[in-house]
Amino acid sequence: VGFRYPYRPSWLYARLERAALRRSAGATVINEAVLRLLREKGFEKPIELVPHGLELERYPCSLDARAARASESGRPPVVGFLGKLTRQKGVDVLLGAFSRLVRGSYGSAPLLQIVGDGPERSRLGDLASGLGLGDAVRFHDAVPHEEVPRVLSRVDVLVLPARTTPMAREQFGRVLIEGMAAGCVVIGTASGAIPEVIGDAGLVVPEESEEALAVAIGRVLREPDVAASLRSRGRVRVLERYTWAAVASTLAAFYRRILAEDSRRAGPGGGERA
Questions:
Q1: Are 103 and 68 in contact (CB under 8 A)?
Q2: Angle at which helices 224-237 and 63-70 pack, to 10 degrees?
Q3: What residues form DSSP beta bridges with 149?
Q4: How far, in Å, CA of 214 to CA of 101, rounded?
Q5: CA 10 to CA 8: how far, in whole Å?
Q6: Rounded to a whole number, what is the largest CA-CA distance in the chain?
Q7: Could you say which of 117, 193, 219, 247 would form a disulfide bridge with 31 (CB–CB 3.0 to 4.6 Å)?
């Protein structure tokens, strides 16, 4: 396996990467795909999966209140997207899926809130108009990161409909763990690391499938018990894996392992590494 990628074609980068890996006692990676890539490149030293984290205290959430609000008569459920409006994020697929939803029967007609800016903003607005979605879709400007918990507190179902492109695939999807922390039901596509981030705490659908995405969103809108179970699993998953405390614990254990192996290689005399 070579050291050049479509998104980093520089031979200089490849040489620097080889040098860094030779001198490293271990490596941390953000997802399983990167771990496999390092192994394919011949990196045999310890590797630890260390995800992004968040401060759970910034996402106050009552799951009971969430469930009660979702069952309120006459209140439209809110489906949300939060992120940069690029082709890779797949918001056009979300709009197509949503147009199927509003033509279906799911109790109160849902609303779609799209929060973000980017090169696709104008095209997506035209697409929403062409689909006849009208006021059922609302576009909002990007918000500062500190505003994300407030925005997500108003979203019932958070969707990351990412697609894989020749130049990019979803490496993590931080908004997914933010959505789980906020008590949203999260739905993502099978792009990149999304399935491993969501695990059993949300729904995963094939990329580019408006029909599958519409069915998934419709299911959690139509089946409150399923939605409540996914919300609960999401909060537990964040607590166990994605708080900064959990991330720090994983990283500290990895450093201790590296130091212990380094000490064993040095031998009882504390000499040079073999």
A1: no
A2: 150
A3: none
A4: 6
A5: 6
A6: 76
A7: 193
Cβ-Cβ contacts under 8 Å for 239 (sequence gap 6 or more): 56, 246
Gap between the Cα atoms of 179 and 169, Å rounded: 20
For residue 155, how many C-alpha atoms fall within 13 Å in the half-sphere facing its CB? 31
Q: What is the pTM of this model?
A: 0.89
Distance CA 199, CA 130 (A): 35
What is the pLDDT tens value at each position of the chain, 274 positions in all?
455 455 555 777 788 888 988 999 999 999 999 999 999 989 999 999 999 999 999 998 888 788 777 767 678 899 999 999 999 999 999 999 999 998 875 556 899 999 999 999 999 999 999 999 999 999 999 999 999 999 999 999 999 999 998 888 899 999 999 999 999 999 999 999 999 999 999 999 999 999 999 999 999 999 999 999 999 999 999 999 999 999 999 999 999 999 998 777 776 655 444 3
Burial class (CB in 10 A: 0-12, 13-18, 19+), 2: exposed
